[in-house]
Amino acid sequence: xxxxxxxxxxxxxxxxxDDFQVHSIRPAVRFLSRGVQPPSNVYVTADDDxxxxxxxxxxxxxxxxxxxxxxxxxNIVPGQFVVKPASDRSITVHSESLCEGxxxxxxxxxxxxxxxxxxxxxxxxxxxALGLGQPSxxxxxxxxxxxxxxxxxxxxxxxxxxxxxxxxxxVQNGPAAGADWIVNVPTNARWRLRHVNMLFTTAIGGGVRxxxxxxxxxxxxxxxxVPRTTQAAGLLVAYYGGNLVYDSGxxxxxxxxxxxxxxxxxxxxxxxxxxxxxxAGDQWGTTRYAVEEWLDNV
Amino acid sequence: MPGDKNISGNEFADPTxxxxxxxxxxxxxxxxxxxxxxxxxxYLAAEDSLVLSGLFKxxxxxxxxxxxxxxxxxxxxxxxxxITVTASNAFQQFQIQTQEGFLLGATVTYSxxxxxxxxxxxxxxxxxxxxxxxxxxxxxxAGYMNQLGLISWPQSGIVNPRExxxxxxxxSLGNPAAGADFTFTVAxxxxxxxxxxxxxLTTAVAAANRQVQFIVDDGATTLxxxxxxxxxxxxxxxxxxxAGFGYAPxxxxxxxxxxxxxxxxxxxxxxxxxxxxxxxAADQWSAIRxxxxxxxxxx
Lengths: 298, 299
What we know:
The complex is a heterodimer.
Chain A (H helix, E strand, L loop, with lengths): L42 E2 L4 E8 L6 E9 L4 E8 L7 E7 L3 E10 L8 E8 L8 E9 L7 E2 L13 E7 L9 E3 L4 E13 L8 E7 L6 E3 L10 E7 L11 E5 L5 E2 L4 E7 L6 E2 L2 E9 L3
Parallel strand pairs in A: 15-16
Antiparallel strand pairs in A: 1-6, 2-5, 2-7, 3-4, 3-6, 6-9, 7-8, 10-20, 11-18, 12-15, 12-17, 12-19, 12-20, 13-14, 13-18
Chain B lengths: L41 E3 L4 E7 L4 E11 L5 E10 L6 E6 L3 E11 L9 E7 L9 E8 L6 E3 L13 E7 L9 E3 L4 E13 L8 E7 L4 E5 L10 E7 L7 E2 L2 E5 L5 E3 L3 E7 L6 E13 L3
Parallel strand pairs in B: 15-17
Antiparallel strand pairs in B: 1-6, 2-5, 2-7, 3-4, 3-6, 6-9, 7-8, 10-20, 11-19, 12-15, 12-18, 12-20, 13-14, 13-19, 16-17
């Protein structure tokens, strides 16, 4: 890293006080420089741990936690450790002992996640006497990315379902001929459905097909979206689903599903087609869909 | 001291061991480490206590844990209280007695998690003086639960239960009697945004064209109604889906779309129900499911 000189002082970073040029007028008050109260309101005892719980949907994610302590001798002690969560949205918990002193700051940063909704971290102090993973003092809880290092102090404590999520598109291979497609919401995910796009080829013969889109927030519930029109035999038609307010309906090679704007799906939710009149030779193509995704229950 | 046992039975961390490496320069400022101001903004007197109040959507164990700088020993003492709560749509309160001292931090967790459990709303406060729950409290933190998500003081702040994204939930209603319409009523202390209403109407052989309508009322007065285009003849089973489609085709074979206000929010006691003109005695509504986003509407 290149040395950067602060524009006002002209001194190199890390230089001695003599390197600095004083440009400002001395304040009217005089500040303590001896016997100052420690600059933290969080005192860490010898039996406290720092604990982080991390969940992620991203492969090869690594979350780096960095902290600084003012120890009982007056030294500033930095510490750092990493946590490698699985990409299945499960929680990985890591605890580490701290030396006694004042906790000055904590920050954490992701190596893979680039936006909210991908990697969620929750950091707190814990005491083994309270039980595994039981917080005694919360420090922060928020999504972490490669650019954002939410931290203590001044970090936020949020639930993973708050704020904007991760806009992500998925592609899934089509089903066997004569079968409908189905998409399962992953465990510990919360989706807001944005778009659906796929092709449906009808074989020769048989009556008209009516492909419906079912959005099931839970396996037992149903939002049943009917298409703009039916599809006859021997045709290839592209189906698009979205929150439309108007559909011109003039293109015979496309068809439309409409669903509400805020259709949320939780773990156990399903997105699937239900094709009335489907024939053995009919074929759904690759399933493409876009959702806004959050981690949930982590 | 190194080698001593802490209260959990483990050894204290040794601040002088080789794993601790001091990388930073010693600060020019010197710190007063002999007479440090207590690091807290809340002092609990001997007659004060913590008060947990909440509306719990599922029966669970609530754990309140934290740290107190004990006034007598001047030690930082961890504390923990577990409370078994039962599901109810009314706020409940529990008193937690602690020792005198500076409250350094407190955290409330609620386990095990579930989508319903996470919809529970909890507040932690201080009751000043032993005069009962009706005395004025200092609210420390309040919010919805989540696994390990918890609420805490001083970090998480105070959230109103009507804030946030709400919880997506689906209600399955039992079938009404034959020849009767169905009704979904919002329960006490709930605010529900209707995302979809789905139900199947199976018409009997009696000849008549049934016209389905979805009606919203406050328990007495009709506030809003919506009617799909087609009418349903005898001896048919049709799926009706009501939602804020914006635009949607009205029918494909046996599936009927019912256009509903996309921002349909109902408070407690309000209802969304079917009203079927020319319904016959043997007609049957079934498979009734209402999907909502829900907030607690009290407190």
